[in-house]
Amino acid sequence: MDSPNAAPGRPLSPHLQIYRPMLSMMMSIVHRITGGALYVGTVLVVIWLVSAAAGPSAFATAQAVYGSILGQLVLFFYTWALVHHALGGVRHLIWDVGHGFEPGQRELLYRATLAGSIGLTLLIWIVGYALKGAAG
């Protein structure tokens, strides 16, 4: 048995207290989380479609749930997850063809993915509400 003051026999693996969070690390984690969230969001889309097929009463119930403040918030974040994950896929496609590996280029791609996902999500929702207002 080693004494408490003895040096360890093998190196310790770095852990989260040693690594400082970097944008690349955070974007990788968020890409995986959004991928998982898309499974849940797809179930919500299926529920909405099934309620539309089930009849006016079921569809009205689904519309009431999805139209509530909580429902709108969930749909907003589903939209962001979808756009963010898609743009992350485009980023990976750029890497797959051999571009964007320089440190500055990688950082630009990460920032563009993040800014693009936020901007496009807001644009989608603004246009959606504008069209809803114009139709009603």
From TrEMBL:
Keywords: Heme, Iron, Membrane, Metal-binding, Transmembrane, Transmembrane helix. Coiled coil: none annotated. GO terms for molecular function: electron transfer activity; metal ion binding. GO terms for cellular component: membrane. The keyword Manganese does not apply. Heme binds at residue 85. CDD domains: SQR_TypeC_SdhC. Its cofactor is heme. Membrane-anchoring subunit of succinate dehydrogenase (SDH). This is Succinate dehydrogenase cytochrome b556 subunit.
